[in-house]
Amino acid sequence: MKAVNLFSFLVIVLFSCNSTESHKNKYELSVSIPDSLSEGITDGRLILMFSKNSDKEPRFEISDGPGTQIAFGINVENLKKGEKMTFTGDEFGYPLQSMSEVPEGEYFIQVVFHKYETFHLATGNTVKLPMDRGEGQQWNLAPGNLYSTPVKVNLKSGIKTELILDNKIPAIAEPKDTEWIKHIKMKSKLLSDFWGRDIYIGAHVLLPKDWATKTNIKYPLAIYHGHFPADFGGFSTTLPDTTIPCTFSQRFKLECYNRIEQQEAYDFYKIWSGPDFPRVLAIEIQHATPYYDDSYAVNSACQGPYGDAITYELIPYIEKTFRGIGQGWARFLYGGSTGGWEALAAQVFYPEEYNGCFAACPDPIDFRAFTVVDIYKDKNAYYLDSDFKKTPRPGQRDYLGHVSSTLIETNYRELALGDNGRSGQQWDIWEATYSPMNEKGYPKRIWDKHTGEIDSRVALYWKENYDLSYIMKRDWAKIGDKLRGKVRIYCGDMDNYYLNNAVYLTEEFLKSTSKPYYDGEVDYGDRAEHCWNGDHTQPNAISRLRYHRMFIPKWTRELPRTAPSGADLRSWRY
After folding, report:
1. 329 is in which domain, residue-wise?
2. How many other CB atoms are found less than 10 A from the CB of residue 569?
């Protein structure tokens, strides 16, 4: 990122040095939009950022970890052409809650306008939310959003500044079909009716070898759940490019991880097209919502009937288009993290429509361990219950237990990025999925976002509708026979987000079952971080790239014991 001359962008910086108010920083930052970029910009979230770093734009420097820079946010509604927006210093921020806390010194500053659209819901509510525009709900990358060119300022006792939103994020090109991968998109009637406008869901479809010539064969369906996929991931017919500059993976502490990813993608192509791999249709679903990069694949009060739309509209459409078998016994689910929760949830809520799930490192599947919070017993999410101490609950750790962020910090970051559940981030999507709707049409808070005080009434709603462990236990007499042999869960015992805690509780229930016994699998990786998926032979850095090649053969090997009598288990095994 380059620093630019302030005056070349009509940015005027004045410093207030009134000694009688030296104890308090004074801020007045106005933001304007050129007429050429103002079309359609009326509602949204204006995010102001301060960064000490010169190598990246501030919009890419807001994170949960210790390297985060500073952000403040305000809502903008009914903005008129030519009207300026203003920060006064009273706005809520992260990791510093007030601009008066920003230390003096040199900073690069930038603003982003995250655009909202208006939805007239079937419930009668009108809400303003950011429509996904092909980027997977990323406020700093969303096409159509505006951002200013970063400028360098020296903060003393205050700042008066005018910033220009002089850049617009361009549209993202749709992926193109290839011999192996096809892309489909369909209008969902169920979702369109709920949102009051046309809503599309889709998928990237990986075709089996000789699909185009063996037109008399129908295939099982492997359904991979996860975050918003730009294309079918981890598959490439191109040899790895050994000339590209190496990229270091900070997460895995590996040099040239980009080359490793290319090699794994090419290796999977060779395996997929080789002589011994099961011939199935494999899909990665696109179902971003105005709240997140995917819907969590269930019906919910605030997001609508995504579970039904995927199960009863999208899946049959894919099977009809690409010659799927089209029966529940011939479909299975797999995924990690968000996708792990979705795989288990879809199996539990639609037990006869799917024939097995492999849920790796799932988001909390028992809300007695909603990461490190028991939403039924704890009074406060941010601090341990205590008469005299105020000990913050941890939010993220490494495999040695070193904590890099707390729950209050993570939630405050989201609150700076958007109120009413509109940050597009993790804790907000859990509320958008699990919570009932409030009187304004937005999700009810499970806890006060400022204080962490838990709402026991919302917690009870979550329990009865989305606590997967509780629901399986409550309904085992009805669904146990339909889930027998279908539930497999994997998690590292040092998951970065403490997701293993909920798996322990769920395992206790599953292993206590009888009539029938669950007859599945729960396994843990020793000192393994997020997102361990059951592979004891490889580190996370590798196994995370092998979901398809791991779980498709495993499911097909187990299929004879779960498929109905007379099912076709041979024609597609060529």
Report:
1. 181-366+467-562
2. 14
